[in-house]
Amino acid sequence: MVAAEYPAEGYVLLRLTDSEPLPEIRAGQFVEVRVADSPHTFLRRPISVNYICRERNELWLLIRVVGEGTRHLSALSGGDRLNVLFPLGNGFTPGHDGGQVLLVGGGVGIAPLLEYGRQLCQAGAVPTFLLGGRSKKDLLQMELFEQFGPVYVTTEDGSRGQRGFVTDSPLLAGGLPQDMRIACCGPKPMMMAVARYAKGHGLECEVSLENMMACGLGACLCCVEHTLRGNVCVCTEGPVFNITELTWQI
Questions:
Q1: Which stretches does DSSP call E strand in the chain?
Q2: CB atoms near residue 40 (< 10 Å)
Q3: Which one of 80, 85, 156, 249 is CB 3.0 to 4.6 Å from 76, fit for a cystine?
């Protein structure tokens, strides 16, 4: 069953629940959603898991409305049903070793970092968030992020936090502890910039790739990424990769 909320213009938050308990889901994994009643949307849409509320048996999907498929999803109302395959892919490294983790997100790429922050806290790790958007209206769920750790913000127009990109944040300019890991999700140029920073400072870094994943099962080969171990399907081998696996020129 679906409950829909509209946290900002151009975004919809779908809260899904079912009579069966949710399975174990690792932060960074995703779902494949079938878009019903859309004559031009033939393929399922991959969407990151935003948050898991075990008390209400809810799985949250934070969606930016950008095309016909997501427009149909944004029109869902309370009580509607949604056909979803999950959990798919490999997620971020769990926080069972404790330590500090910097979670860097841009745009709707912040979505999976909320659940990752929750899971890190649950495991005894210490998350810090660095979140960026074009303007303050793209920075959603801030009060929820703040429950799990300090939140640093950048906006391209300067409407909230530091003006510029996440890599312009004073948090990075001041240097990070050498034992801090980085997890990143967002536009590819942003992730590559964060990866360059991590490599230059000798920090472990994982990124969540956003290749088109039409099936989520490794069958359609839409999402193939060339890595140092050859071509792999992002939907099954990722979407989260350590930057040392990628052929990015960083």
A1: 2-5, 11-17, 30-33, 45-48, 51-53, 58-64, 84-88, 100-106, 126-133, 151-155, 162-163, 181-185, 205-208, 224-227, 230-233, 240-242
A2: 9
A3: 80
| Per-residue CA distances from 33 to 41, 91, 105, 203, 241 (Å) | 11, 18, 23, 35, 23
Q: What is the largest CA-CA distance in the chain?
A: 51
**DSSP state letters, 183-210:** EEES-HHHHHHHHHHHHHTT--EEEE--
* CA distances, 69 to each of 40, 63, 76, 143 (Å): 8, 11, 12, 29
Query: Rounded to a whole number, what is the distance in angstroms from the first to the last CA of the chain?
Result: 44
**Three-state helix/strand/coil letters over 205-240:** EEEECCCCCCCCCCCCCCCEEEECCEEEEHHHHCEE
Give yes or no for a contact between 42 and 34, defined as CB atoms under 8 angstroms apart. no
Which pTM does this prediction carry? Answer: 0.96
Q: Among 209, 203, 160, which Cα is nearest to 184's?
A: 209
- Given a contact cutoff of 8 angstroms between Cβ atoms, the answer to whether 78 and 16 are in contact is no
> What is the enclosing helix (H) or strand (E) of 145?
helix 142-145
Q: What DSSP character marks residue 246?
A: B
Count other Cβ atoms within 10 Å, centred on residue 67.
13
Q: Are strands 181-185 and 205-208 parallel, antiparallel or unpaired?
A: parallel
